[in-house]
Amino acid sequence: MTRPLAIDLFCGLGGWTEGLLSEGWRVRGYDIEAHEYGDERYPAELVLADVMSLHGADLAEAELIVASPPCTEFSYMAMPWGRAKQIARALRGEDEFPEGYNGSRTVAELTALFNACFRLQREANEAAGRDIPMIVENVRGAVPWVGKAAWNHGSFYLWGDVPALMPEVVGARKLPGCGHGWKHPDDPRHTPGLDFTRLAGKAADGIKQAGLTGLRDNGKGSRWFQDGAAPSGSKSSARKAASAKIAKIPLALSSHIARVYHPGAIEVAA
User: Fold this and answer.
1) Which of 141, 211, 206, 202 is nearest to 173 (CA)?
2) CA distance readout (Å), 5 to 29, 64, 95, 123, 179
3) Considering the domain boundaries, does residue 79 fall inside one?
4) 114, 147: one domain
5) Are 22 and 6 contacting, i.e. CB atoms less than 8 angstroms apart?
6) Distance, CA of 32 to CA of 37 (rounded, Å)
7) Same-domain status, 56 and 137
């Protein structure tokens, strides 16, 4: 029996793909680069391509599309920093962009990759002559720019064809990605109220985290952020590796979506 095909756009290290593979899908991932860090790499068929250059007809054989377009600009503008707020105001036409800024200059540029996912779905539906469900994941900071999310799994916000029934998220709180607040509870620098239900690389489901061993502390001797990736340049391999791991979809979420949309499950429900 042929396994159903899922398409994973902006696939990264394959958080969506791992759950899909575990539930009997075959998966084709698309990304502009191959994320390979030591023994970690994308676990299925990988197509190196700019998602913006694709046409939905390329995806028409799929039974499901999942996507995680880059969230860097959305995340930055959600930060409580003067520069971040100024950029957000500038994008709304309420201020000038700060000196040295080289990001998106219009809201259309900012949301282009996010909107491309829905364009591809429309084109794929037309080419296939049927509806292909799609789930798009991003961060809470995207909401002011792309609209209200249908649901969230901790810090993983979802748009598109999100099922009515979703897995319960226990103790999933958004934690700062790489700075103040993400400390061991016994550390005097720890910010009270953050969730540390699973230490040593096993944060609660729904928390964007790197899955590394050791306590998440950027201080000397820490293993969080790839054993000192934080001081590295933004384009360094260490920083890219840490970012790719943080962005991975939790298995509880990806496997649930995989089960709900598996054609076998749909036939049983019918």
Assistant:
1) 206
2) 11, 7, 46, 17, 39
3) no
4) yes
5) no
6) 16
7) yes
Domain assignment present for 89: no
In a domain, 90, yes or no: no
| Residue span of the structural domain in which 185 resides | 170-204+209-246
Q: pTM (2 decimals)?
A: 0.76
Judge contact between 158 and 143, C-beta under 8 A: no
**Whether residues 238 and 264 fall in one domain:** no
One pLDDT digit (tens) per residue for the chain, 270 residues: 689 999 999 999 999 999 999 999 999 999 999 988 888 899 999 999 999 999 999 999 999 999 999 999 999 999 999 999 999 999 999 999 999 999 999 999 999 999 999 999 999 999 999 999 999 999 999 999 999 999 999 999 999 999 998 987 765 443 433 333 333 333 333 333 333 232 223 333 343 433 323 333 333 333 333 344 444 455 667 777 777 787 789 999 999 999 999 998 755 444
Q: Is residue 40 located within the same domain as residue 62?
A: yes
